[in-house]
Specification:
This protein has 473 residues and is an alpha/beta fold. The chain has 15 helices and eleven strands. Helix 4 packs antiparallel against helix 6 and helix 9 crosses helix 12.
């Protein structure tokens, strides 16, 4: 400051010099601010440029990935037809000797196989997007995997249908609705080519009077136990001069502990047959065809076959009497189903989406079902079993098992539906009255009783044994 004091003049020029100095300092300050803003702006622009370049590179990579996928799809679809045909023959077998598969058929099959491939990739990516504990939860809940497997199973069945149908099925009848294809008799469209996980081929090594196959879920071990200890205890009927066997039909489960339990149960009782379709309501008709196919292949020496659910009690003593009367009348050699017959047009088709009984108009166009038997329990003669199974190969699938088997296919197979004697009393299908009925003499007319509470069955069975010992039946 001492140097400045000597430099700044005195007198009238002093004020002018000070003013000029402040003006210069202010300008320096302003220029400093401008320079600082320019530097920041350059940095921001450079950063934005980097982000834009990065985004551009990502978009370029995405476009490249899309193009790669497009090229892969194009390569898939443009693959040599003959090479793909050879692959298909290796996978599914050439069901018709020297069959020429036209290009249109192969394109449809390849399209389905492509969807199968994407299903597997989607499932794989979904699993990798989750941590290990989440994946374990998926396996434990069983739901996600089962639903995915059902989609894959449906597409595989469609592949088999197209493959087995070849030119006749695809080219000539593409315009037909699904249900109308039942009119086509020269192509197998429902092959039921599932594999046995558990089988008991020697159950029918002796000539049988009656084989009972029971629809049961993998987890229903207690229901199977109750049946073995009550009406399914076949040693009770040897004194009546008849040989009866009981077998339980199951689909597969992805719950390992349940499957292990089923395997051990099978080793103890040797009365379980299991195929590798998913055990779900949507596959109930597969379970029905499974039973018919098993009887046709492994139990052709039984006179009668009874299909029953695992929540139904059977008065075997009354049933045996009914069957002996059928033998006497010659009906055992005819194609007959006996059951609780629903008349044509009585039962409406459920169109409410999301429900287990929903059937689309494309699958079944009529608003009411034709005549069929209640699925809780129905009896088939051996000729009826063979006829229905054989015809099922040519009838499009519908999951409403009782109508599909005892209605649609049975009609096409020329099988006659009949009621049991006094059929209005032979069935108890309202389980809220189950225990009340079996505590009174009113149960003497019943052959079948439905009970959602399996705990009631042993008590009701004791009543049946008592009345049998009293000579009522």
């Amino acid at each position: 400051m001492s140097a400045l004091k000597g430099w700044i003049p005195k007198g009238k020029y002093r004020l002018i010099v000070l003013l000029l100095m402040w003006i210069i300092l202010f300008q320096i300050f302003i220029f400093g601010l401008i320079a600082s803003n320019l530097t920041h702006s350059h940095a921001v622009n450079h950063s934005n440029k980097d982000v834009t370049l990065a985004r551009g590179e990502m978009m370029s990579n995405d476009a490249k990935d899309k193009n790669d996928r497009k090229d892969n799809n194009s390569n898939w679809e443009s693959t040599n037809i003959n090479d793909e045909a050879n692959d298909l023959k290796m996978q599914f077998g050439e069901t018709r000797s020297k069959t020429k598969i036209n290009d249109d058929t192969l394109k449809q099959i390849l399209k389905i196989l492509k969807r199968l491939k994407s299903e597997k990739v989607e499932r794989y990516n979904s699993a990798n997007d989750n941590n290990e504990s989440t994946i374990q939860k998926h396996f434990a809940s069983n739901t996600d995997i089962d639903e995915h497997q059902l989609r894959v199973d449906r597409m595989l069945r469609k592949v088999h249908a197209i493959w087995n149908g070849t030119d006749t099925y695809v080219a000539n009848h593409r315009s037909l609705k699904v249900w109308d294809r039942a009119k086509i008799h020269d192509a197998v469209i429902s092959p039921h080519d599932y594999t046995y996980l558990i089988n008991e081929p020697n159950i029918c090594k002796d000539d049988l009077f009656l084989l009972v196959y029971v629809y049961t879920a993998p987890s229903n071990a207690y229901q199977r136990k109750v049946i073995r200890e009550t009406w399914g205890k076949v040693s009770l009927y040897s004194s009546l001069g008849v040989v009866i066997r009981v077998v339980f039909l199951l689909g597969k489960t992805h719950i390992e502990t349940v499957q292990e339990s089923i395997t051990q149960e099978s080793k103890i009782y040797h009365d379980i047959v299991q195929e590798d379709f998913i055990d779900a309501y949507e596959n109930l008709s597969h379970k029905g065809i499974m039973g018919l196919k098993w009887v046709t292949k492994f139990c052709r020496n039984t006179k009668f076959v009874l299909k029953i659910d695992d929540d139904v009690l059977v008065n075997m003593f009354k049933l045996i009497t009914q069957l002996k009367n059928m033998i006497s009348s010659g009906e055992s050699s005819e194609k007959i189903i006996r059951g609780n017959v629903w008349a044509n047009g009585i039962m409406p088709v459920v169109r409410e989406k999301g429900t287990t009984l929903y059937v689309s108009p494309e699958v079944y166009p009529n608003e009411n079902y034709g005549e069929y038997c209640s699925g809780a329990a129905y009896l088939l003669t051996q000729p009826a079993v063979r006829a229905i199974y054989k015809k099922s190969l040519y009838v499009p699938y519908i999951h409403i098992e009782d109508y599909y088997i005892t209605g649609r296919i049975a009609t096409l197979a020329g099988v006659t539906r009949k009621k049991f004697d006094n059929t209005t009393q032979a069935y108890l299908l309202f389980d809220e009255y189950f225990l009340l009925m079996y505590q009174s003499d009113a149960s003497d007319s019943l052959i079948f009783g439905l009970s959602s509470n399996i705990m009631y069955v042993p008590q009701a069975w004791q009543r049946i044994l008592l009345r049998h010992s009293q000579g009522v039946y």
